[in-house]
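Let us practice reading a record.
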Amino acid sequence: MSAVDLLKKDNIEKDKKLQQVLQAGNQVILDKEREIQLCLACLLSQGHLLIEDRPGMGKTTLVKTLAKLLGLESQRIQFTNDLLPADILGTTVFNQQTREFEFHKGPIFANFILADEVNRATPKTQSACLQAMEEGSVSMDGQLYTLPEPFFLVATQNPQENIGTFPLPESQIDRFLMRIELGLPSREAERRILTGDQRSHMIEDLKPLMSPEDLKNWFNKVEQVHMSDGILDYLQDVIEKARTVANGVSPRAAKDLHRVSKAWALIEGRDFVIPEDLQAVTVSVLNHRLKADNGHSQTSGFELAREIIQSVPVK
């Protein structure tokens, strides 16, 4: 039996519910089918997402659309230079009636957090999200508070050259499973944006297509997707190549790439991973973890990640 026949034999139908989420998202965010699928793969991998682009590119609209379609309780935190950690996590207040201190939870206690323009806050405030992103919990005054499950943090940020931005700490950058860019729409898509309904009205009319329980089932399905030893070798070759090109590729990055490759395969309708699945997500998983200085010019992480995946052969 040929490899093509084997692929057809083992292929499973694309899940209708996942396809409905993608199609509904594509009706609101035009001309960005691949970016929306990357976002969905990231969330099915239980990872956090960073969307970087110039103002007005639809970053916030995309995040609101995903939250509505996935049926998750969401909170928006607008990051500004005067935002404090307590504004995110919550604060302890003395109750005059009970004569005891009570913890008032902040907006981070929700399933889906939109951290809007996260790099406009100071590094101290940005770092307030570190424990929540890594452990799904918050420590305050010696007490540990568990966040709702599932918990996603999707952050948007403007390019660092924009006035009034602070670079994210490397420790926080590494906690984002993916970083993506949206880019400009095509001329046809932009015409539809200009002449069609307001995106905000379209989001209000969306109906949830999933529930938190559905998502937890999908998390289990992602874990069950098979990755062969040959694909694992390919993944490790990519990670090792990345480490020879630039610093910053941790074992967490390898685990993220492993998990999201499975999620991409599942969305594509397969219960096993092929090289194309890994290639489809590698740039988004690695770009924000790569830094290399080529003379006087700084090569972007996106360019480095593309060079890496193009240079590693499939065995």
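A brief commentary: Confidence is low (pLDDT under 50) at residues 1-11, 293-297.
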